[in-house]
Amino acid sequence: MRRLFLMGCLLALPAFSALAKQPYVELEKRFSAEQMRATGLDTLSSEQLQLLNSLLSDEIRVSVEAEVEQARMESAAAATSGDAGASGKSANFIGLNEAPISSRLKGTISGWEPGTVFELENGQQWKVLKGKVTLREPLLEPEIKVVPGFAGRWFLQVVEDMPKARVYRID
Questions:
Q1: Residue 161 · residue 123 · CB < 8 Å
Q2: φ and ψ at 101, to 5 degrees?
Q3: Do 16 and 68 form a contact (C-beta atoms < 8 A)?
Q4: Taking the model in full, what pTM does it have?
Q5: What is the Cα–Cα distance from 40 to 13, expressed in whole angstroms?
Q6: CB of 42 closer than 8 Å to CB of 28
Q7: DSSP single-letter state for residue 42
Q8: pLDDT at site 118
Q9: Residue 43 backbone class (left: φ over 0; alpha: ψ -120 to 50; beta: rest)
Q10: Is the pLDDT higher at 54 or at 142?
């Protein structure tokens, strides 16, 4: 599993580097005249538009550089650690760990749909990607499981006999 993670990190580095080297496309080239009017961007002076483009370009560059650095650090950490640490347990990478996560939801739940965010008692936050369910009656702080699926997918199970929500971790 460690090798799979390392390969994924190493394969991702060139993609991040390519993203970092892509030129920023200015707003006035990205949007049509109608879109510029609809968003109010057409009311900006040329200096304001230039400043906005500069700020967005810098923000994207900094974000990509941070992601590249994070990927480098993770691959270096994975390379220096063995398959198991001193405790004998394997590394816990989201999407690669095969163990279900058991916890309780904070608050009341009456259903979910794409975009719903679940906060667990253990501090994790999971957002619904797919699935829509309305419960017959709201549940107060129910016990749940977040179970792994195929290819790194995760599913939130509230009631065992009901459909699960496809979720991804956002914290």
A1: no
A2: -105, 125
A3: yes
A4: 0.45
A5: 37
A6: no
A7: G
A8: 93
A9: alpha
A10: 142
